[in-house]
């Protein structure tokens, strides 16, 4: 599609098609460059639209990237779920190993996670932010369900702590394990610094395993009240009759 050939979408189906094309172009670009290097101008060129026309479908670059992030997260959950079942995974160690391995296979997910709070959430409207956070809640519920099914059911507070801390770790550990060229050169040149260079998959695995081990023995003292959603099943309002 060229910018001169652009015609405004006349139907909802055409509008959705344009949005999908923009999201697909964003994914292509993120396979070639970092989140910081992806500009709205570059995205518009890749999809064959003027920048102003891209903004007919998304309010900002960050709006596009938040939606790509949500899709990447949901795609990861699908893969993680399938491989948990295929592998007959049970217990903290095996669950943590597979979680870290499947996340490490998706560097785009990890980088978007690392950029979410500090960059991507900073240039969006309340409407876009609310939609993004609702999607994040749905993803959190799914991850908590996988933990309950393959490790052990957690209390509501522990489930919130597990999902929240794991999501922070996916982005935070990624950022800490991607050294700059200068830092990488220092690690390579000075053996005494090798212990400071961490492997992303290993660090994430150890974090999740330690987190789940701790949550099995300590109830979190959360400084907030859960919203109108739950990460664990609602208790029955009336006793379930015995068989």
Keyphrases for this structure?
243 residues, mainly alpha, Arc Repressor Mutant, subunit A, Tetracycline Repressor, domain 2, 2 domains, 10 helices, 0% strand, disordered N terminus, disordered C terminus
How would you characterize the overall build of this protein?
By secondary structure, the chain is mainly alpha-helical. It has two domains: 49 residues, Homeodomain-like (Arc Repressor Mutant, subunit A), CATH 1.10.10; 157 residues, Tetracycline Repressor, domain 2. It is built from ten helices and no strands. The N and C termini lie far apart (64 Å).
CATH superfamily of the largest domain: Tetracycline Repressor, domain 2
What do the pLDDT scores average to?
88
Ranges where pLDDT stays below 50 over 5 or more residues in a row are 1-6, 235-243
Q: What fraction of the residues are assigned to beta strands by DSSP?
A: under 5%
CATH class of the largest domain: Mainly Alpha
Q: Radius of gyration in whole Å, from Cα?
A: 21 Å
The amount of helix comes to: 55-70%
């Amino acid at each position: 599609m060229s910018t001169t050939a652009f015609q405004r979408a006349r139907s909802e189906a055409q509008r959705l098609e344009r949005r999908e094309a923009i999201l697909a172009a964003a994914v292509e670009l993120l396979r070639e460059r970092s989140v910081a290097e992806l500009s709205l101008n570059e995205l518009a060129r890749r999809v064959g639209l003027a920048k102003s026309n891209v903004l007919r479908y998304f309010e900002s670059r960050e709006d596009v990237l938040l939606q790509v992030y949500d899709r990447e997260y949901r795609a990861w959950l699908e893969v993680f779920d399938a491989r948990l079942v295929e592998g007959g995974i049970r217990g903290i160690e095996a669950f943590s190993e597979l979680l870290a391995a499947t996340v490490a296979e998706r560097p785009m997910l990890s980088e978007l996670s690392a950029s979410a709070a500090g960059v991507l959430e900073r240039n969006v409207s309340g409407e876009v932010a609310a939609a993004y956070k609702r999607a994040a809640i749905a993803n959190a519920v799914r991850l908590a369900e996988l933990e309950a099914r393959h490790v052990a059911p957690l209390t509501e507070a522990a489930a919130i702590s597990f999902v929240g801390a794991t999501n922070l770790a996916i982005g935070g550990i990624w950022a800490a394990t991607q050294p700059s060229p200068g830092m990488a050169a220092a690690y390579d040149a000075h053996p005494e610094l090798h212990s400071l260079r961490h492997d992303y998959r290993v660090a994430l695995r150890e974090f999740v395993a330690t987190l789940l081990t701790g949550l099995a023995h300590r109830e979190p003292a959360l400084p907030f009240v859960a919203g109108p959603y739950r990460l664990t099943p609602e208790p029955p309002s009336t006793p379930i009759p015995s068989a």
